[in-house]
Amino acid sequence: AGQGSSVRREGFGVCAACARTRRGEHDETEAGTPLYCLPCWQSYEEGLARVTAAADTAAEGICNTHPHPCSHPHPHPQGICSVPLGSRTGAAVPEAWPTATQPAITQPAATQPGQATSSQPTAAQPAITQPNVLPVDEFEEEILRRVAAHRVSIICGSTGCGKSSRVPMMLLQRGSATKIFVAQPRRIAAYSLYQRAISLGYGSLVGLRMGQDTRIGGDTARLFYVTTGYLARLISYHPEALRSVSHLILDECHERSIEADLLCLMGRRLLHSYPSLRLILMSATAHTELYRDYFAQSLGDRSVAIPLHVGGARFPITLHYLDDVAAMHSLPDRLRRTATSLSQKIDHTASYPTSEIRKHYSASVASAQLELALWVARLAAAEAVAGAAVLIFVAGLADIEELAEALQGLPSYLFVPIHSDLAFEDQVKAFEPAPEGVTKMIVATNAAESSVTLPDVDVVIDLGCAKTVSFDAARSASVLSRTWLPQASATQRAGRTGRVRAGTVYRLYTRSLFEALPPYDSSPIGEQPLEATLLQLRGMLAVDQSISQLLQESIEPPELLAVGRALLALDVMGFLQQGHSAAAQRGLAERRQQAHQELNELAIGQTGLHLPNLHGGDDDDEPSHPTLSTSSSPSAGAVPGSLFSALGGGTLAALDCCGLTATGRLAAALPLDLKLARIVALGLQLDCAAEAIVLAAGLSLPKPVFRTASPLVHSSMTDYNSLVRTISESRREFDCG
Question: Most buried of 61, 213, 353, 456 (most Cβ within 10 A)?
Fold first, then answer.
């Protein structure tokens, strides 16, 4: 460390100065211990050395009365610096650095050499910049009145009306004791809203909290943008953290996920625990009656406001479906025939029952859509105004790579991908303007579907699909597959344009399919494995409290069969505690056998399927029609309060209400897949923790840990060929060819 160095701790995350995701060091002397990357530390220390060398003489007179290690080159007695990195005297800090305690986005006049800088906020309010008027601004008084008069408020409005950016600021400006959490389903949405608040001058009042140790914002912050996953884990393990929170905003609540449904469940419970808390739900396409009824059942009708619609889009949007694309004369004849054939195939899909339509998405449809998307994007770019961008929604990373390869080497296009697996700093380029004469081509998954404002996007091309996770009961396995999106998601995607001028949307599917799709997304809590969810909930509950009863309080409760299957899987992994005595251990196999029989009885009754044996035994040893008699009767150990007790499932009822083992508590605390968390736990037990952690870290990555050549990442042909050669030589050397 150089002059003015502070107490630091190594870490990895988003730098509080340059907002890039890098390895760096936490400044332990600042509130919130923000992380700064190593280049920013170096830049700061180099600038400090230059300034302090010139300011030594001027600072000498102040040192005797107000010594500070950042004000002069003399060492501090403790070697500790209490001034934030972005505000230390003499630091060459770019204006765009979002420091943890900066009073406003507009930096104050340069401090004179030798003058000490305080890390405390100034008494004056930040210099707030008034933005352009948005449709939601007309409803400010009504929004504030409803929020004050009701425990739960529901705000709806078309995409682009300003809900996400304006409503938190309305609440923030009206109360000095206000503390607000705004939950966003995606990292890039939380980051973009935080940057928007910074640009308007709310620097010292806003903060950002996300996974991967992202902590921006000091003691003066009263508005925190957080991800849904971060907030769900925070409430699960530290519900007291919301004791001082006055408003909890769940934005884009139409995006159904297990974490989002759990947040609604936790929020409903917090409303009973903290009488001053107010909950606000916002979305352009939410199922408002579903949410209103859910909270009214617990709080009463008078505590839940009637949904408020706060205005439409700012500029008109023109919609074109696949039928219109087939009629485009500027398309080559071959592609027009492809569009016509694709329209007929998709129209046939629209004839399926509503509950089955989303599953019928074939690889041939995906290939034809990508080819059409590329041509439509290039034609739209040729007709667009200067500085306009094109946004293409695809299903996954393979689609992004295919389009990147097709556009590679074309200087008139700037390719920007948005995907959760890509580096965050690369995705942030989507918010930057393209060079003159270049059209920005943004290709994104549903990560950019909501709460992301890209003002320069004039054209949106939507394939209407996404990668979704579902549970295949016949195989007892999770399946990631392409599915059609509901109407609500299609509306959100269309809303990414029309922000600053009229926009155009090309939906590469037919109007009949759109009308046949379900209006809203279904609850994933009934479609995805529940093991991680149950483990998280188990950590919230006291021993003897039933998980099945708690899940009945969710918006759309899962089937009891899915809950039982997850409980048995957790027991097999050793996460559930049912006694440590020798007798209990000897009866472990028998107990799991009995639990499997009870679960199989439920499966036969509900689906007619015979479940695979999860505990590792031989299915041939089981009776063909297991019953829930004798040891599974209520008198043989059924637990009152568990839903399994009503069905005579004594063993499953006991699992439903038991606590966590030490391994289970560790798995619940680690942000890992449960099987990988078990690897770490076994490594600790076998005295090979380091090796187990490295193994779990490697297996947790979405891609292999070894480098691979990709034209999406390696734009230089020389670098690409060099990496291919290195990989081939390494495989020949270490894998014997």
Answer: 456
